[in-house]
Amino acid sequence: xxxxxxxxxxxxxxxxxxxxxxxxxxxxxxxxxxxxxxxxxxxxxxxxxxxxxxxxxxxxxxxxxxxxxxxxxxxxxxxxxxxxxxxxxxxxxxxxxxxxxxxxxxxxxxxxxxxxxxxxxxxxxxxxxxxxxxxxxxxxxxxxxxxxxxxxxxxxxxxxxxxxxxxxxxxxxxxxxxxxxxxxxxxxxxxxxxxxxxxxxxxxxxxxxxxxxxxxxxxxxxxxxxxxxxxxxxxxxxxxxxxxxxxxxxxxxxxxxxxxxxxxxxxxxxxxxxxxxxxxxxxxxxxxxxxxxxxxxxxxxxxxxxxxxxxxxxxxxxxxxxxxxxxxxxxxxxxxxxxxxxxxxxxxxxxxxxxxxxxxxxxxxxxxxxxxxxxxxxxxxxxxxxxxxxxxxxxxxxxxxxxxxxxxxxxxxxxxxxxxxxxxxxxxxxxxx
Length: 433
Ligand code: URA
Ligand code: CA
What we know:
Layout: H1 3-11, H2 18-29, H3 35-48, H4 52-63, E1 79-83, H5 91-100, E2 106-110, H6 120-124, H7 136-146, E3 148-152, H8 159-169, H9 177-190, E4 195-202, H10 211-227, E5 231-238, E6 246-247, H11 249-260, H12 266-282, H13 289-301, H14 304-315, E7 334-339, E8 344-349, H15 351-361, E9 377-380, E10 387-388, E11 393-399, H16 405-413, E12 415-418, E13 428-432
The structure holds uracil and calcium ion (CA).
C-alpha cells in the first residue's frame, strides 16, 4: 500500500479495506508513516466518516498495536463499564463493589483523571494505604477470591490510540464520532472484558453536548463491540448538571459509601441501579433487568455491597475502617459557603464550569504532571429545580487555602437562578442495545 492512495480513497468517500486500515495503524505506530499524512487522513475521516465495518477494523487494529489483557483465568463473564466522562461522576466507585456483590467478577483497570476531578484510581488513593500495583497473577487471584480488584492501566495498552489521540488534539480532529468510538472501544477491548456497558453522557458537562450526538456515539460503540464479539450496550445519561452532590476525590469516596449504604443522592443512586442492572444481566446473574435491580437493592439493604468495598480496600492495603468512619479520609482545612446572590429557582448548573471551580481548588489536574489535593472539592447544596433564598448556600467549598474567591464566583456565575421553576432534567435517556 501507499499511504497517499489510502488518503485519496477516504477523501473521495470510499470504504477502506481491513488491510488498508491495518496498514495505516501498524505503520503509523512504528513511525513509517509521517504525521503530515496521518493528519490528512484523519481530516478526511472527519469529513467523510467511516462505515461500521471500517470502525471495527480501526478499533481492532488499535487493540492489536499493544498489550491485550487476558482475563480467561478469571471464572465467569467479565463485565466492564465505561463512562464518557462527566463532573463528579462517582458511579464507578459505587458500581465496582455493588455489581461484584451480585456475583459478577469485576476486574477493573482504571486510569487517572485529567480535568475536573481525578479518575477512579485517584479517588481510591484518597484511602490511606490503598495501592493499585498488583501483578497480573495477584489481580486474577484477587478477582477469583473476592470478585473484585482494581489495577492501574498497563503502560502499553493501545499505543496506536495514544499516538493518534495526541495528533487529533493538534489537528482539530478529536470531535469525530468514528474516531472517538474506536478510540474508546479499543481501550475497553484491550482491557479484556467479555461484556461492556457504556454510560454515554450528554449535556453541558459532557463531551457530547447534544442528545443526538450522544446517541450517534453510543450506536457506533455498540456496533463496534457487537462486530468484534463483545456484548456491548449503552445508556444515555444527563450531564447538564453535576451527578450527585460531591465533586472531589475524598468527597466522592464519602458519597460512594453513602450510596452503598442506601443513603446516596437520588440521581447517583438511580444511575448506578440502571447501569448496574445491565452489568448484572450481562454477567449472567439475572434473567431480567427487574431481577437484576432487585439483587442490587438487596445487597445495598443487607450491607454486603459496602462490606465488599471494605474487603477490596483491605486486600489492596488500604484502611478499611473508612467505610464506617469516613472522617478517616483526608479532610480539607477550610469549609466555605457559596451563598446565592438572588432568590428564586435553580434553572441551570453548568457542570463543566463547576468542574473547573473544583479543579482550581486542586481537586483535578490541568496538566498530566499536576498533583491532586485529595481532600478538596465542592459539595453542592442545591440541584436544578430547587428553590433558593438570598444568602442560602448553593454549595460548600472544601479547600486547603483561604483564597477561594475565584471558585466562589465561578460557581455563582454558572448557577442560574430565575423566577420561574423548571423541572429537573431527565437523568436517563435512551438505552441502546
Ligand atoms: N475519550 C477517548 O478515550 N477517546 C476519544 O477519542 C475521546 C474521548
Ligand atoms: Ca458526585
